[in-house]
Amino acid sequence: MVPRPGTPPAATGPAPRPWRPIAVDEAGPVFEARPPAGPDFFDFPDTECDGWSTPELTMRYASVRGARHRYHRQPRQDSARAAVDEASGTVVFAVADGVSGATLAHRGALVACEVAVNRMLDGLWQDPAWTDIGGLASQCTARLGKLTRWWLRRPRPSLGEIAELYATTLVAGMIRPSPGGPVADLCRIGDSGAWVLDRANGRYYDLFGAAAGEHADVVSTSVTPLPYQPDRPDRVGLQLRPSQVLLVGTDGFGLPLGDGDGRIGELFARQLGSPPSPAWLAHVLDFSRATFDDDRTLLAVWPRTSARR
Question: Is 114 a domain residue?
Fold first, then answer.
């Protein structure tokens, strides 16, 4: 039978070799991942990825469990979500990193992403010019507080009690189509990061400045994760040029990236020159490098320059 036009050819020949982790400098140990130890973790898969395009923008994200959690049978504590407001073409997104000392950090990160994305979509549905992303922290804290009341069976849990269960970082934002190029608006609570990768020269530009460091303590003042709310959440806006890619990631990506001048920066500059498949992004993000064993999440958005010509 002759395949119809556009039909992928049938697989023939020997089976392709399985993907091996990309080793960068000294690779980490090789072992088979272990399942999380508990019946409540089935909805927190080891690896998660997604990707799609609008007429103006292409979005990809991937989130992978780090070697430390794979070995110690702990769930992935990172999360990411993205959606599009159909009326305006605005892409909204959220990336969160559950603080390792929180009992239900994995749940806190997921809830923060879901609340942030839903709130942005609701705001844009009511007003296409809506921009109140600085108010997302209070919405997330309210939901985490409600979960804590249910979990502890207490009517008014303190912020400390909420943090002990659900503390998480959050980077959330939106990218609006514009005749001069997509306009991005981002806010941050905690130490996750955002960068612009210029594909013309392979350089990375840190949008929020140096990260505050690894968050080992739920109540660390250097991290100030949700449910704590800073007086002024970090916020940044920019217009993306055709050669630029917006990157949002947890410190599992940001710490090995550093200033982008090393091997990790070279790897991602090469792989993100054009949008990869979501599965391939997850594979690249799951690179192997000694001492870097945290969960990793990366969301990337490319302008579709051909759409504006």
Answer: yes
Number of domains making up the chain: 1
Whether the ω angle into residue 256 lies within 30 degrees of 0, i.e. cis, is: no
Residue at 5 is within a domain: no
* Assigned domain for 290 exists: yes
CB 161 within 8 A of CB 144: no
> Cα separation of 221 and 143, whole Å?
22
pTM value? Answer: 0.90
246 burial class (0-12, 13-18, 19+ CB within 10 angstroms)?
buried
Cβ atoms of residues 53 and 304 within 8 Å:
yes
Cα separation of 122 and 198, whole Å? 32
Q: What is the CATH number of the domain that holds 148?
A: 3.60.40.10
Total residue length of the chain? 309
- Give pLDDT tens digits for 24-34: 988 998 889 99
Neighbours of 209 (CB within 10 A): 9
What is the domain range of residue 105?
47-308
Mean pLDDT for the chain? 90
Token reading at 195 = 């960068």
Helix, strand or coil for residue 162?
A: helix
Asked whether residue 28 is assigned to any structural domain, the reply reads: no
